[in-house]
Amino acid sequence: MSWKYLLPVLLAASPASAQNAAAGKKPGETFKDCADCQTMVVVPAGRFKIGSTEEERTREGVPAVFGDHEGPVRDIVFGKPFAIATTETTRGQFALFVKATNRPIPTECFTYNATDDTWAGTPGNVANWQKPGFTQDDTHPAVCVSLDDATDYAAWLSKKTGKVYRVPTEAEWEYAARAGTTTTRPWGDATQPICTKAHIMTTATFAAIKNAQSWQDELMCSGELSWTVPVGSFDPNSWGVYDMLGNTWEWVADCAAPDHAKLPADGTAQTAANGGDCKRRLNKGGAFHSRVWLARPATRGGGQDGSHRPVAASIRIVRDL
Asked: Which of 20, 61, 73, 154 is the most buried (most CB within 10 A)?
């Protein structure tokens, strides 16, 4: 659905105060708060349904260990607009933050170890966002970052610009990823188009990961061995947001929970006060080594400590309006 038809519906459902809060910025409009800040796009006020149905999970072949966490489907209402970064935070953008704050370079990242076929890293081989174990440049998403890194990066941008930047809630992230649609993915329920719309597991990456052989009967995208790709390599969704599916997992602010039953209906984050386990945190969207059913807006990944740095985890920020 285009902005032309969606905008009147969303604004009609939004209180006047919410529209005033975004004075001068309209849904779909992009902006930057400083020359080297990330490009943000305005997401409208409105409502959507978070999570997945049993029908979707069955069609996609989602194992219960993942799928059971995606229900029940809940109505979420955003009373006012917010802005979200059009892309993941790049390695170059993250480097500016590290330099400006004299942030120590980490000495650990959970990367793929081909020797024993695990994702626990290689003993004695230090990995971090500067050297994750594969080739990147400053246009690729910053990886080997933790939720703590993401939160501190957003706080630095807030201090630098005088605006409120933060890590998105799960509801905000999924709302932006769905872009006004109700289907499995923004383009519909069909799986096949994913290879031209998102960077997920390719046949070459599949061959390089030994324990992936159990996936051999699933849809695989053809292509060369590729870990991350530059941000914006695929077309954006209809709200102007790139790479919400595939390339890298993206941290969200919520504490983990077994399902959506106690998720706040106003789009705020799930915390310990409403049933969240804050020793485990969530990320969304799938990554370069993900099976196709993982690359859906409804998927809830993670369950890791907020200080954990997975090789496929990155940052996407939002800004309050």
From this structure: 154
Closest to 198 (Cα-Cα) out of 283, 137, 287: 287
* C-alpha 31, offset from chain centre: 20
Q: What distance in Å separates the CA atoms of residue 231 and residue 234, rounded to the nearest whole number?
A: 8
Here the tokens at position 171 are 């509801």
Side-chain half-sphere of 19: how many Cα atoms within 13 Å? Answer: 9
Q: Which residue has the tokens 């024993």?
A: 116
Residue with tokens 């390599």: 233
Residue 195 is encoded by which pair of tokens? 């290879």
For each of the chain's 321 residues, which pLDDT tens digit applies? Answer: 434 333 333 333 343 333 333 457 899 999 999 999 999 999 999 999 999 999 999 999 998 888 889 999 999 999 999 999 999 999 999 999 999 999 999 988 887 666 666 655 555 567 899 999 889 999 999 999 999 999 999 999 999 999 999 999 999 999 999 999 999 999 999 988 999 999 998 877 777 776 655 555 666 787 776 789 999 999 999 999 999 999 999 999 999 999 999 999 999 999 999 989 999 999 999 999 888 999 999 999 877 888 889 999 999 999 999
Which DSSP string corresponds to 162-179?
Answer: SS-EEPPPHHHHHHHHHT
d(CA 40, CA 87): 8
| Per-residue exposure over 281-316, b if at least 16 CB sit within 10 Å of its own CB, e if not | bbbbbbbbbbbbbbbbbbbbbbebebebbbbbbbbb
